[in-house]
Each structure stands twice: as structure tokens, then as C-alpha cells.
Amino acid sequence: MPEFKIKERCIGEGYPCYVIAEMSANHGGDLQRALAMVKKAKESGADAIKLQTFTADTMTLKSRKPWFQIGEHKVWGGKTLYDIYSEGSTPREWHQPIKDEAQRIGLHCFSTPFDAGAVDFLEELGMPAYKIASFELVDDPLLVCVARTGKPVILSTGMASLEEIEYAVGVLKSNGAKNVAFLRCVSTYPAELSQMNIRTIPDMARRFRVTVGLSDHSLGVVAAATAVASGASIIEKHFCLDRKKETLDSFFSLTPEEFKGMVARIRQVEEALGAPFYGPDQQELKNLRFRRSIFTSRPIKKGESFSTDNIRVVRPGEGLSPRYYAKLLGSRAQVDIDEAEPLMKHMVEEKLLI
Predict the structure, then answer these.
(1) Residue 347: helix, strand or coil by DSSP?
(2) Over the stretch 85-126, which tens digit does the pLDDT of each residue have?
(3) Residues forming beta bridges with residue 183, ordered by sequence position
(4) What is the value of pTM for the model shown?
(5) Strand partners for 191
(6) CA distance 148 to 165
(7) Number of H helices, E strands in the chain
(8) Can you state the percent helix, strand and coil of the chain, rounding each to 5?
(9) CA distance 103 to 114
């Protein structure tokens, strides 16, 4: 599988899961809040903070016609697309101070561009990677523009069919993208656990031979931990300082404490996954003696035959392996043996143990 890398960080099988804190609209229109989120994301165990780069005018038209209305939604209902994107955008003049703060504390910072102008702007800032949002997977001009930067691309696949994913990857690779990772995603907010279909992650890795992760819009941390157990190498989760300040995304985002708990759970899962291993580990070595082995069940004289009446397979494992039990039956003892003694090589005919 091709190596996926952002700056100095290798991402994929054999490396710790790369955890992205998605800021999105959770800055609430306050730069100081955005900068505080960067610091809290680092403290919570994130590897990267991710922005979204767009304006309402580059996303949609300012219209109240029916097809520009959100429709029924507990948070976004009654708004137009233009309303949503006006409220949720991150001002361009904030990108540099956010990136600088992230760099200062050792956190990666990159963004999801939504148009060619956004890509050009982010290139001027020296962003190390790009995320393609699920809804933009079908936007060929954007894919071409991102691919031509030569930067690593994380492609979110919410709603996409296999054919659409294959086509998008073709567009990216034919225009110069060499470093592409996929995210399994359910593009509903919040997503139900029953929709997550985490088994798509290993299937996607096999089909496309790429690094795969999860863009998780579900509530809680179950999906993220399950994804890592299933082979996810990237977890992206929306992040907020708290839910007291309601923003467009706060209702399905994790607070710093919750995010820290998710990262801890991910690291526990990774620790438990380990690597393929056979044989006793260091913890088990001392317990080998509690395996079964062959013992005498009564005294046996030299020359006496071993039988079901005088030897048994019991715990502990101090004697010969039970694999020799059938061979021993009918053979003769080479020495006198006391009762409840482990049967050893020198007590039996050597040829039986070959």
C-alpha cells in the first residue's frame, strides 16, 4: 500500500492513528475562540486542527427560492444555504494566525477548500495538505486544482458510489495527486450509529489500496474507536470548546474533555490490537507451568509398564507433554518413580519421545 504522509508524519498501518480536530463553524465568529480551540485541540491529543475555507458567495447564491432553503432540521431549519455559509465561514484573515498558533504548539493545520480561489489562497499560506469534503467529491474543477498542488489529499466519501469514488480518484491522480487517503463518511448531522457501516473501511482499503479513515459525524466516540479497531488510520471529528455557545456544528461536536477521552480510547484500542503474534508473551511465561503434563498417579517400579492406572494427564505442566501419553502406554519405566511425580525423559525409553 502506498505510504501516506503529511509533513513529517507517516499515516497508515503500523503508525498511530492520525486524529484531526475539525473546527468548522465552532469558532462562533470569534478569532480568540478559534485560537483557544487550537490550544485545546493539542491538549486533547489531536494531531491536526482543520479549517474550512469558503465564503457564502463562493458556495451558493443569495436566494430564498425553495431549492436554496435548508428545510426541516432541529438546528439549521428555516435558514437558507447562504445564511448557513455566511454564519459558518472562517474569515481568510484568520487563517494565518490560526496556522501560526498551531505551528507554535506542534499541531498540524490544514483546510478544506471549496473552490479554486480558496486553493490558491491556501497555497500562499503553505498549507501541508488538503481535505476534499464529501459534497465536493463530484466537483471536477476543484479536484483538478487540488491535485495540481502535489500536496497530500484526504478524500471524504460520504454519499459516494463506488463509481463516483473511482472517478474522483482518477481525476486526482491524472492531475498529479500521488498521496491520497480516503475517509469513510456518513454525511448526515448527526449520523446514526446504525448508518455507520464501519466494515466499509477495510473493504475500501482492499479495493483501492489506500490509507483509510473515518470522518465521524455520529454522537459520542463508539464509531471512532470501532473504526480504529477495523483498520482506520485517520479519525476526523468535529471539535468545540463547549456546547454552551451554540454554533452550527456544536450539537454534534466533541468538547475538549470528550475529545481527550476519544483519543485515549483510540490509543487503548491500538495497544490492544498490537501485531500478529504467536506463542507465550512475557506475561504468560510464568503461567506455562499451569498447563497439563504427564504425572504418575501411584508408585511405579523399574520395568513396570505405564498404563491408565499409573499415569495421568493433569496440571501443572512440570512433566512430559500430553502429546506423548499414547506412546507411553505399554512401555516400561527405566527407573523407580514415586507417586505424584512428573514424568521426565530419563524415566522412559528415549525412542518413545522422538
Answers:
(1) helix
(2) 999 999 999 999 999 999 999 999 999 999 999 999 999 999
(3) 156, 213
(4) 0.89
(5) 218
(6) 19
(7) 11, 12
(8) 40, 20, 45
(9) 23
| Residue the block writes with cell 509398564 | 305
Amino acid in the structure at residue 301: K
Asked if residues 296 and 310 have their Cβ atoms less than 8 Å apart, the reply is yes
3 state SS of 33: helix
Terminal CA-CA length for the chain: 45
* Distance between CA atoms of residues 251 and 315, nearest Å: 57
CA atoms of 258 and 225, how far apart (whole Å): 13
Angle between helices 222-229 and 256-273 (to 10 degrees): 20
For the chain, domains (ranges, CATH) are 8-54+89-273 (3.20.20.70), 285-353 (3.90.1210.10)
DSSP 306: P
Largest CA-CA distance found in the chain, in angstroms, rounded: 103
Sort 27 into a burial class: Cβ within 10 Å, 0-12 / 13-18 / 19+. buried
* Owner of C-alpha cell 486542527: 49
String of b and e for 269-301 (b: at least 16 CB within 10 Å)?
Answer: beeeeeeeeeeeeeeeeeeeeeeebbbbbeebe
Backbone angles phi, psi at 11, to 5 degrees: -130, 125
Query: Which tens digit of pLDDT belongs to each residue from 177-213?
Result: 999 999 999 999 999 999 999 999 999 999 999 999 9
